[in-house]
Write a structure and sequence with these properties.
By secondary structure, the chain is mainly α. The chain has six helices and no strands.
Length: 194
């Protein structure tokens, strides 16, 4: 099979793909959580010891946890890919890469909106709050930090709830895109399609 070259003026971006993957992984995660809960050997609020978990259940838990993490990462990738696409399309790839590509996601977003759309977005704006939520969820996974635990600490303080963390990441991704469209109505053709 011979691939045809992209027509002039088209862009290659993974925005819609990452967006769909985040959403589909969340749906898959919801099913996996039900499956794991149904096979849990004790009440769900009770912890179990390693010897109480069958190899089958251990594999299901690993798949559930991996799907949760994957969902959160794809949500962040969708947002970041969108910002990179939006910036490159609006400013030109060379200008965007020279001045914006390496910026952290919040300053990148605020500067892109200021320069491209003459919109000054405050730190407390719902768009920025959603953006931070997606980024922080991802960063907890890809930049893990060691934390010293105290004997009286609740162990759950150090875990991300499943499926809660993935639900929150996808909801924040959805909010980001919704808020972006509300701020920049002409951006509809840049936004991901489900």
């Amino acid at each position: 099979m011979v691939l045809e070259a992209f027509p002039e003026g088209t862009w290659h971006t993974g925005v819609s793909r990452f967006y769909r993957l985040a959403r589909s992984h969340l749906a898959r995660l919801e099913r996996l959580v039900l499956d794991v809960n149904a096979k849990w050997p004790k009440a769900l609020d009770e912890s179990v010891k390693d010897h109480e978990i069958t190899p089958e259940l251990d594999a299901m838990v690993l798949e559930r946890d991996t799907t949760s993490d994957t969902c959160r990462i794809f949500a962040a990738m969708a947002v970041e890919a969108f910002l990179n696409f939006y910036g490159a399309a609006r400013l030109g790839e060379e200008e965007f890469n020279s001045h914006f590509e390496r910026l952290a996601v919040v300053p990148k977003t605020r500067q892109l909106l200021l320069i491209c759309d003459r919109l000054s977005i405050a730190e407390g704006d719902p768009l920025i709050k959603a953006l931070k939520a997606v980024a922080e969820s991802r960063n907890k996974l890809v930049h893990p930090k060691a934390k010293k635990a105290s004997p009286g600490d609740d162990p759950e303080k150090y875990w991300s709830p499943i499926p809660g963390a993935a639900r929150e990441a996808v909801a924040a991704m959805e909010t980001f895109f919704s808020e972006f469209q509300a701020l920049v109505p002409d951006s509809l053709h840049f936004l991901p399609m489900a």
